[in-house]
Amino acid sequence: MAFSASRRSSDRGPEPEWSLPPDGIYAIISFVKVTVDTNILYQAVCSRLGASNAILQLVRGGDLQLAISVPVYEEYRAVLSRPQVRRATGLSQVDIDAILEFIALAGIPTPIDFLWRPNLKDESDNMFVELAVASGSEYLITRNRRHYSIGNTLLFDSFTVVTPAEFLTQWRKIHG
What we know:
Largest sheet: 5 strands, parallel
Number of domains: 1
Distance between the termini: 30 Å
């Protein structure tokens, strides 16, 4: 549909085929990209209540972009496929596979070209830092913020490490 704004005859050139709507209302789409620690995904499948599940629902609704890499996806798969996780959640392996398929389809695949290896206390957490940096994530969401610091210093300023509740508080301030 073509929009046209009124123009004075003194304006140069022919009438444009399109221009901004006369009321000046614009739709600005801004996607927030996040990296999610495995503990958030685990908590989201354990309970439909709570911030972790709400974050997964934002991804499901297309309101949030989830960065994924092969190592992170493989950790998601390994943890969610454990028999004790299926027992705790009451989900079958078919259900777990459906969740993993959703993550594979909805996630933004990100190649890891550089191994940052900040030497965190838990070696397995390094892959989440690498993904957050490589993907340009604004947030790394985890229940274990202390795992992503050495002393009291966060290692990177290109993203913010937050808990699920902190993320949702910030999200709601911006998006209502």
